[in-house]
Every structure is written in structure tokens, then in C-alpha cells.
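*Target chain*
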Amino acid sequence: MSKNKIALIGGGNIGGILAVLSAQREFGDIAIVDIFDGVAAGKALDIMQSNAADGINTKLSGTTDYSNIDGADVVIVTAGFPRKEGMSRDDLLQKNAEVVRIVGKNIKERAPDAFVIVVTNPLDIMVGIMQDATGFAQSKVVGMAGILDGSRFKTFLAEKLNVAVSDIQSFVLGGHGDSMVPLPRYTTIAGIPLQHFIDKGKISEAELDAIIVRTRKGGGEIISLMKTSAYFAPAASALKMAKAYLNDERSILPCAAYLKGEYGVKGLYVGVPAMIGKNGVEEIMELDLNADEKSEFEASIKSVTDLMEAARKLSL
């Protein structure tokens, strides 16, 4: 039985953590491509030597040559400029749009059957550019955002409520930015609605509102501390999506998926809960939103739409 092949485009912080986690979990052989000579090769060699110490048989290769990704089953794209302190995700638009176009053309040529997961920011726009560059079915190109945003929301809630983070289930809708929409009404702790904990005085509405704001600005908080973008949580989030595809899990995961009328949105990649299996995005789960949630979601959609228009002007 042949092994799966996971291609990582970008061997920086996120790409390096992806390679380590993928190897440790033995999802398949790993091919890294990075524009800087020696970076991908060095990290591949270092991780393989680490694997030898741990008795892990995953093979890794690294190069600047896109032929390294030939026939990949999954391609995870982290290539692009990272966000620095004082920059918004939107500031990266012009810099990263061309990077993603070049990467997409190479994926189309070298890995035409791959499931593509985009991590590059501004996420919702970059995944649309990637789908256009590859020409792949929309269901085979997705963006990693909702799992990361949801993980931040769950982490902050677990800290406040002093509960196991593994007991918390929640979703974050909308664009991957300050207009994202955490959903307390769809949040449960061990199956118990979050509202129960509010009613019991375990967390106040004001404290919950503060957690929502912190979630929306979660990426910026990391940058203010490390002076560069987060990489551990984004890598783990992208790998969860790859695992769902490779194992045909049909897991319902929040991700930037292409909408064809769901939530009243057409022709746009937006963060929504989606079922991921062997065919990629197999179903969009459409939640019933109340008036406030719908208003926030629509504001987030407008933010994504405005940025998409700016991206189109850059490509003229």
C-alpha cells in the first residue's frame, strides 16, 4: 500500500511545525518547497534525524524545486509574507496575491488531484486566488481559519470557566479577521449550553464579550508578543483538515469554503462549518442565525467582499 504524500509550500515557521507534526503523526511522506535555498532541505534533514531518534519512519524531502510535490495528495500552502506588528491581514494583500498565484500554477501542474489547504493571509482572499490559479473544483480548495479562530475562542473560555478545553464545542463564522463572528449560542461545554454557565454566574455577559473581542484580535495578540505571526496553532489547525481529508472522516470543521447560495452568499470563500471527507468539502452546514448573528455575519461578508474587490483591481 502506497503512503500518502503531503506537500508543504513554504518552509518557514508554520511550514516547519507542519512538517514536524505530520511526521510525528505519520500521515504520509512529506515534501517541502521553499524559495530560500537550503531552508527546506535543512529542515527536512533535521526532522528526519529527529525521527530516527524517535523511531519514526516518515520520509521528508526539501528543495526549491516544485517537482518535489509531484503527485501530492494534500498541499498545504503557507508561502507568503508573515504579518508583522502594526500590520493588518489586509496589508498583506498585494504582497501575497502574486505569491499565491505562482504557487497555484505550480500545484496545477505538479499535483492536479490534490486537496489544497491555504494558510496564507489575508486568508479568505488568498484561497479564492488559489482556486482561480489552480482551476480546481471549489470543493478541493479550502482555507484554514475557523479551526484556528475557534481554538482561540475555546482556549479563552476554558481558562475563564476552569474547564477542560476538550469539552468545549463551538464555531466561528465569517472572514478571518477582526469582523469574524464567534457563536456563543452554538457553544457547549460537555454538551451543556454556554448560556447555562452564564445563568449560573460562572461567566458574565461582559466577560464573554471581552473574550469575543480577544478572539477577534487573537492573531494580533500573538504578534505583539512574538513580533511575528503565530505558527503552532495554525499548523495544528491545518493538519486537522488534512487528516479529515486523508482519512475520509467526514468531520464537520469550520473553514473558508466556497459558498453557492448558503447563508445568502454566492461566489465567495467564507468561514463556515463544512463537512470534509475524501472528496474535499462535501457539504456546507447552514446554521440558523438570529438577528444579531446575521447582522454580524453580513458585516463580515462585506469586509471580505471589499477586500476581494481590492484584489481584483490589483490583478487588472
